[in-house]
Model the fold of this input.
Amino acid sequence: MLGSQDALRPKKLLITGASGFLGWHLCSEAQSDWQVFGVTYTHDIKVSGCSMVSVDLRDFASLKQLMQAIQPDAVIHAAAQARPHVCQAQPQATFSINVEASWLLAALCADQNIPLLLISTDLVFDGQHPPYSETDAVSPINRYGEQKVMAEQGMVERYPQTLICRMPLMFGVVPHAPSFMQSLIQKLQAGQPLPLFEDEFRTPVSGFDAARGVLMALGKGKGYIHLGGPDRMSRYEFGQHLVNTLGFPISRLQGCLQADVDCSAPRPADVSLDSSLAFSLGYAPQSVAQALSCLLAVT
Ligand SMILES: NC(=O)c1ccc[n+]([C@@H]2O[C@H](COP(=O)([O-])OP(=O)(O)OC[C@H]3O[C@@H](n4cnc5c(N)ncnc54)[C@H](OP(=O)(O)O)[C@@H]3O)[C@@H](O)[C@H]2O)c1
Done:
């Protein structure tokens, strides 16, 4: 029988990738309801109310030891090499963090029979038939997308209770883990022109809304859920919202096409997510315009 102290103590949530963009938002949002243990690797960061531990998740012995030491009640696996051009250039090196570590974590969570949530991506789709719902077949066109599909499928094989959250493009301001938005702001502030794709579409969401969506989904069952934002827009349209919010002239933006730029990893045209399942469960992310004005008002 549990003592009264044990019964009152919040449950333990292990969050991998805690030092990353999404992981930092997850730790910040989860710590009011959970006893949070964040896993970092090269960045030694602190988040108020959370305990941090540094582990290379590619080291299977260390990962097993971590799970034994913490005995989490639930796990969110957000750690990854999430830059498509790095996965494209180093498919073997990135396979070990993006795929093998995910598979091992699934086996360890299966042993403990605890909720496990994988953070996946809209880039599991080829961008030809948007918007994508949870029942659409995966069709990745770059190594990163292929690795995420292997992680998803291998985790479900090893632990059918796994919940997969497919995330859209995320934006926000985290000093040690910048999103794409921060480099846009730096260029604007430096007076540089800002070329942005007019023919690449996503359903962007702020890091805070993404984290709230993930925490809402945790424990809601197994399978797949899409956590896209309410707006489908091109990168150029995102830039329009950004310059409007920051008060820069629209002339600083330069529209361009995917074909104009030589990218090492192929880029899908439109991986907009259909997130109606999540919306029906209470996921309510802000529009891009609303989220930008909140984020940039406080930074
Ligand atoms: N950012 C987006 O727009 C986006 C969109 C869709 C899906 N996603 C997915 O969301 C998740 C989080 O993405 P993010 O943008 O937050 O990534 P990020 O900022 O690049 O952070 C990656 C995290 O993974 C950790 N990590 C990398 N290699 C590791 C290793 N060998 N052992 C332990 N930890 C390791 C990093 O730790 P250190 O920094 O301490 O080294 C960091 O905490 C990823 O699964 C990504 O695929 C991201």
